[in-house]
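Ticket opened by: R.M.
Priority: normal
Category: complex prediction / small molecule

The reporter submitted a protein together with cobalt (II) ion and asked that the result be attached to this ticket for the collaborator who will pick it up next week. Submitted input follows.
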Amino acid sequence: MKLAKVFEHNKNWVASRLAQDENYFNELAQGQSPEILYIGCSDSRVTAEELLGAQPGEVFVHRNIANMVCTIDMNTTAVLDYAVEHLKVKHIVVCGHYNCGGIKSAMIPKDLGLLNPWLRNIRDVYRLHSEELNAIENEGMRYNRLAELNVQEQCVNVVKNPFVQRAMENGLQVHGWIFDLFTGKLIDLEINFDKVLKDIRQIYNITE
Ligand code: CO
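Result attached by the on-call engineer:
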């Protein structure tokens, strides 16, 4: 990707959109009503729109290192609040991916400076599931399993929000997915939230 080509690409993109529909940008500028909030990794290989086949206006996107949902991260919390309370999305997707650098770094105990507090949240997920993870001999498979378990725990973090809990009573759904970089396939982890949330509901359910 050469930077000098960006504006040329943009010019071509505008022309191709207008060739298909001369009102395309007038309509796009009217507003957004996406049905999906996508929370994914910042990794350049895991682009939200391309892997979902989504067009502008269809998905509200938030990305950070290792698709984390941290309660005291105002960025993620504001995105969640805006998506649920104002855009009234019907689905929240947390999408992780195999071969995730953030996940791998978190599994190696090493001082990484400013990244430490961020990776700490992933290391907490590792601690929660250390028994299962330490039993996996293959290093790559261990990282990929943590990527899956991390998606599950970040979905749980999404559900900890009271506005998400209220919206779930009205049909909002939370999904945990994994993008398999080795095959290009998107995998639904089919997280059983009734089972996952069973023991923690009494602690985090704050809308009663
Ligand atoms: Co990643």
